[in-house]
Amino acid sequence: MSSRLLPLLWRELESLFFSPLAYIVLTVFLVLSGFSFGFALSLGGGVVTDTIALFLGDGPFFWACLLLVPPLVTMRLVSEERRSGTLEVLLTAPVRDGEVVLAKFLGALVFQAFLWAPTLLYIRILRGYGALPDAGQVATSYLGIACVTALLTAAGLFFSTRTSNQMVAAVSALTLNVLLLAAPLLVQGERFGLLGRALGSISMTGHFAAAFSRGLVDTGILAWYLGGTLGLLVLCTRSLEARRWR
Amino acid sequence: MILVEHLTRRFHELVAVDDVTLRVARGEVLGFLGPNGAGKSTTIRILTGFLPASSGRAEVDGHDVATQSLEVRRRLGYLPENVPLPGDARVHEYLEFRARLKGVPARERTRALDRVLAQCGLVEMRRRIIGQLSRGYRQRVGLADALVADPPVLILDEPTVGLDPGQRQEMLELVAGMRAHKTVLLSSHVLGEVEQACTRVAIIRRGRLLAQGTREELEAGAGRRGEVEIVAPRAGDRLAAALQGRGLAPRREPGSDACAVRLVSEEQGPALLAALVGEGLPIATFRPLTRSLQEIYLDLVRDAAA
Predict the structure, then answer these.
(1) pLDDT tens string A101-116
(2) Order of strands across the sheet that contains B258-262
(3) CA distance B192 to chain A (A)
(4) Structural element, H or E, at residue A160
(5) B188 has which bridge partners?
(6) What's the start-to-end Cα distance of chain A, in Å?
(7) pLDDT tens figures, A74-106
(8) CA distance B211 to chain A (A)
(9) Cα distance from A215 to chain B (closest Cα, Å)?
(10) Residue A12 to residue B101: CA distance in whole angstroms
(11) CB distance B78–A92 less than 8 Å?
(12) Residues 6+ apart with CB under 8 A from B168
């Protein structure tokens, strides 16, 4: 880790945690995750693995949280700096564009980890009522959440590098997220051929159903999220550098 | 040192900087003058590594801005126009963050912070939130940021915009005080400020450098060097005749008692004055005719427009 990454990351965290938006996002998230847990309890029928699968993989509130939060967290990361002019101050300091992108990405991830951390309490509540959740299933569910969050955060960050308007960045990222979720569901079956299979292989809900919610780790799926995230971070860096080509 | 050679920057069809060549030596403060849209900020953004040049090259402290951008930025303190700063940070937190980013070692950081806070008059503001500061104090925070790593080269883009006269004077004194040990490029619209703080001036218009040099060099280039104004109340005709009698060609407004005349050398002045007084002319004024930087600047810009 370069000596510049740490101060950049620290500054990002300060900026995220001290913004009013952070607390709006936190409130919305806690409400949605509360609904999600209630929904999972009522539909789980007393079966712990089903309840956890609904709470951390299959439920509509879960996906609402997972798709909505990254655009809200990332929308201002670069676009606001571009609008206010602080991006020029930042990029004329002795830092690499890649370090700025990485610090913003990691800052957004840490903030979202802070958002998701209270959901562990719900698992604790299940234990308190005598249900014994499968530790493997819980761990892989959170691994899945981390993978999807990383991918969508990198995508949100990319849109934030493309515009000085936060709302444009958020709406673009949210649209992509909804497409990523819905397209594989809409285009499935043999009649869609190669396109259907290709979209099926990147289906986020499919990944949860096939691996994360079942306590399984599929290296192919992990490689897709890791590669996708890294690819998007490279695109973010190129997008910041694009000022040099104009 | 800052070295710029045949620098050009195009934005599609627009040539924002057109074949600019200039040099700022250590110990110099170069005033970078020009109207809005002249290409000052684009030139500065190329020097700071924020934008690349379309052609030509630039060096800061011996490092090429295109190929050694990080090295350049380590040696550069930059105060951008309008001083964009994060409104949510406290002054000392922000300056500490910038010091860390610029690689100021941990053991020197406190001293560096204390130094710039004192230098920029921010000691009492150190715990204030930047977003709540007045324009003048924000400007000082920007300058403190530029100075915190004690860089050998400073680039200040319109550093006095929005300051009141007192703050403006303090800022210029601060810049002038850096002459001895730094290379400073100061962009400004305000000619009086440039005259006060800068050792040399470069004038740019529509991307092209019109002139550069000390004020005396610009004056000489503009053709008024060596002229004197002589006033003889109620004896204008006699004065003009006496000057013509000595082979000089006085310029005089009709009916005026004042004549402007070009001397061959500076030494000719006292002898001429003695001779005119000796002829019984009532000389009230005998002074070198100088032009303000503003006159020179306006003439150059007008000539270029024509």
Answers:
(1) 999 999 999 999 999 9
(2) B258-262, B227-231, B285-288
(3) 28
(4) helix A135-162
(5) B33
(6) 31
(7) 999 999 999 999 999 999 999 999 999 999 999
(8) 28
(9) 42
(10) 13
(11) yes
(12) B160, B193
Residues whose CB is less than 8 angstroms from the CB of residue B171 and which lie 6 or more positions away in sequence, other chains included: B139, B140, B143, B159, B160, B163
Angle at A85 between CA B71 and CA B160, to 5 degrees: 85
Q: Contact, A184 vs A199, CB < 8 A? A: yes
DSSP β-ladder status, B200-205 and B29-33? parallel
Q: What is the DSSP letter of A212?
A: G
ipTM of the complex: 0.84
What tokens does B77 get?
């303190």
By C-alpha distance, the chain B residue nearest A17 is B88
What span, in angstroms and rounded, lies between the C-alpha atoms of B117 and A187?
Answer: 62
Return the residue in B50, B69, B83, B90 with the most chain A beta carbons within 10 A, the one to mutate for interface testing.
B50
Q: Do the chains contact at A93 and B82, CB–CB below 8 Å?
A: no
| Contact residues, chain A, for B73 at CB < 8 Å | 92-95
The rounded radius of gyration (Å) of the Cα atoms in chain A is 19
pTM: 0.84
Which residue(s) pair with B90 in the sheet? B129
- Strand (E) or helix (H) holding A240: helix A219-241
Residue of chain B nearest A243, judged by CA positions = B51
First to last CA, chain B: 34
- CB-CB contact of A31 with A65 (8 Å): no
